[in-house]
Amino acid sequence: MAGFVPPARLLSRKVHLIPGQLHVAELFFEVPKNYADPSAGTLKLFGRSVRKHEKPVTPLGVKELDALDKLPYLVYLEGGPGFGNREPQDSSLTRYVLNRGYQLLFLDYRGTGLSTPINAQHLRSLGGPQAQADYLKLFRADNNVRDCEAVRKCLTADFPDDRKKWSIFGQSFGGFVSLSYLSKFPLGLREVFMTGGLAPIRRTAEEVYRATYKKTIERNEAYYRKYPEDIENVHRVVEYLRKTKPVLPSGGVLTAQRFLSFGISFGAHGGLDSIHSLVLKLVADLDQFGFLTRSSLVATEQHNPFDTNPIYAILHEPIYCFTKGIASRWAASRVGAENENFLWTQDESHITKGKPIYFTGEMIFPFHFDTYPELAEIKEAANILAEFDGWDDLYDELQLRRNDVPVYAASFIDDMYVDFNLARETAGLVGSIAAYETNSMYHNAVRAKSGEVLDQLFRLRDDSLD
């Protein structure tokens, strides 16, 4: 397990009441930038704690108010990597969890949201590509859990002993973080929930992508079955983009390769429809004007927001580098080159007329660092990280096997992002786990079908399934 982590320092706390009778505290913390070298400086973390705003008939006394402030915490760990949290009132989790007697903490991972967010301008101020890469190495799950533990010690310092532990809820990459947390700081945890987050803890990026490319092919086939007219429409858009390579309103270039990587949406509820709607909009422009309007170009920028969430692109493959000696080396690109459906990821000239063009899924490619302006500025640092093989361990398999913290996991058979068979393999390695497996939901079920998936997870916890 990991070593000692000092408590975070609370820098500020501002309380607001928001519509729907929610009591929200906006919190800024200070934590070490590098836990192995506390003298290296600090980072700021941002989070929002949420509880019900009680309006009793008679005013609450000091003891009652104190009890509300010391409700047990459940911490939501967002997917990604690279995304901060939405407003609490916009989360499907908020009211469900508050009604279960918790207070909820939305904590932005370091480098995301308002937690010293990664951006090219700041990275340039640190020095050249190697200095930038060394800084980015500090933003993986191992330090995410150190931050969480530091914040837990800060927020629960004056809690009763039976409430100092907290619960965590990991969605997607948040599940990866949860498994790292169980590996390094299990004594800080009461229980763990996760949805679509059973990380392939002993599989390399190459093994992961060989599995997820297969599911991506299935989702492409489902897309073209549902919208057969898009076989021709996608060809029309791709042909136009190959000829013109339009510059996007906020910079960057809409190449055919960038467009064809929007298939990441296929893994979510409504994802096939969202891509069809975009294709329809682009084709309508070509029919009516012969070019893509600003409205359509802006719409394309809403897919794969790597410019505003660069960690997603920079550190996506390193989430599979689970121990020393493993480098990603642009694994998605290398594995894609093994399949004729994805040869276009190497060169657009491989696109064949008449055949359906397959979109890629949750994969990052070197061409992203040529077509997104924010990523282009840190391309050299990304190449250094792709070759780096000195990563610290993300998981402790022995600790996970002897784990006694209750874990409740929802796993999706048709998950395009976290392969179901690899997830089941991981479930078999973790002690004290109860898993709910279903083929009626996709990866974003916690948002799209929140009531169903949350009910199932809490039934696992409450042992009401028979």
TrEMBL record:
<feature type="domain" description="AB hydrolase-1">
    <location>
        <begin position="74"/>
        <end position="220"/>
    </location>
</feature>
<keyword id="KW-0378">Hydrolase</keyword>
<dbReference type="InterPro" id="IPR051601">
    <property type="entry name" value="Serine_prot/Carboxylest_S33"/>
</dbReference>
<protein>
    <submittedName>
        <fullName>Alpha/Beta hydrolase protein</fullName>
    </submittedName>
</protein>
<dbReference type="GO" id="GO:0006508">
    <property type="term" value="P:proteolysis"/>
</dbReference>
<dbReference type="GO" id="GO:0008233">
    <property type="term" value="F:peptidase activity"/>
</dbReference>
<comment type="similarity">
    <text>Belongs to the peptidase S33 family.</text>
</comment>
<dbReference type="InterPro" id="IPR000073">
    <property type="entry name" value="AB_hydrolase_1"/>
</dbReference>
<dbReference type="Pfam" id="PF00561">
    <property type="entry name" value="Abhydrolase_1"/>
</dbReference>
<dbReference type="InterPro" id="IPR002410">
    <property type="entry name" value="Peptidase_S33"/>
</dbReference>
<dbReference type="InterPro" id="IPR029058">
    <property type="entry name" value="AB_hydrolase_fold"/>
</dbReference>
